[in-house]
Model the fold of this input.
Amino acid sequence: MKAQILPTQRAENLLYALFDAAGDGCHVMTVSAGVSTAMVPFHNRGNSTYLSQDIELADIVLATSLTLTGEVCGIVLRTNEEEGTSRVWGWRLDGAIADPLTAGELRRVYSTDWLTGASLPQEPGLHYDDAPHLPLI
Done:
């Protein structure tokens, strides 16, 4: 019988996998499930991840775990790059599986108003990339 993973453990695994995948630079991770959203700004340098002084990892794990209690949620990782450009990756999280989104799938999400379904203009300087696989053990 497979042991059930608690939402806080899933959130912690997810956070560490994203911190590792992000690489060096300034990033913002957004986890959304239904109306719940958790945003986590962080900076990676070498093998270290830095959070804002007013942010505690335990608080982030708790907030992220609350979004993971639903059936399916989405994760977006935005990296701020040089000269005002940004790179965006995304995943669909269902249970213990994080399905990487392609650049095209993420572009469709970003270019559609979620309330009306209307098309939105491309954000200047925003580049969509295929998301890497995340090991969520």
